[in-house]
Each structure stands twice: as structure tokens, then as C-alpha cells.
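step=encode ok
step=design start
structure_in=
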């Protein structure tokens, strides 16, 4: 999802953010569109708040993984 798919998604003019949620650890990665074809990368981990600017969305990462245990 970080190679070909990401390249294809980045070509969609209306796409502002691309989010990857790790199913094996508490990690969320966000690729955010900037100016002039620049994309910014932000990784979130336990104890942090995820921010999706395009949706004006803020969420504690623990809420995404609520009810999931990693054994």
C-alpha cells in the first residue's frame, strides 16, 4: 500500500489524505497532500491523537484499536 497503490492514489486530484492503519500494532500512518505535488508523512502511535485535516477529524489512536488485543 506504500508503493504502487500510493502512487495511483496520489494522482487523484481530490484526494487530500491517505491513511494506513496497521493491523498488527498500534500505528497509523497519514500521507497528506501539500503544495506543488509535495506529500507530507505523519506516523501516529500509542498515546497520540490522529488528525485528518481534510475532514476536520481528531481522534485518540486508542479509539481506533478499542477492543483489539495484540498477543
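sequence_out=
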Amino acid at each position: 500500500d506504500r508503493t504502487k497503490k500510493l502512487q495511483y492514489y496520489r494522482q487523484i486530484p481530490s484526494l487530500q489524505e491517505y491513511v494506513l492503519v496497521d493491523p498488527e500494532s498500534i500505528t497509523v500512518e497519514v500521507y497528506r497532500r501539500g503544495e506543488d505535488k509535495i506529500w507530507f508523512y505523519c506516523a501516529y502511535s500509542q498515546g497520540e491523537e490522529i488528525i485528518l485535516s481534510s475532514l476536520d477529524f481528531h481522534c485518540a489512536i486508542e479509539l481506533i484499536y478499542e477492543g483489539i488485543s495484540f498477543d
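step=design ok
step=annotate ok -> The chain has a mean pLDDT of 94.
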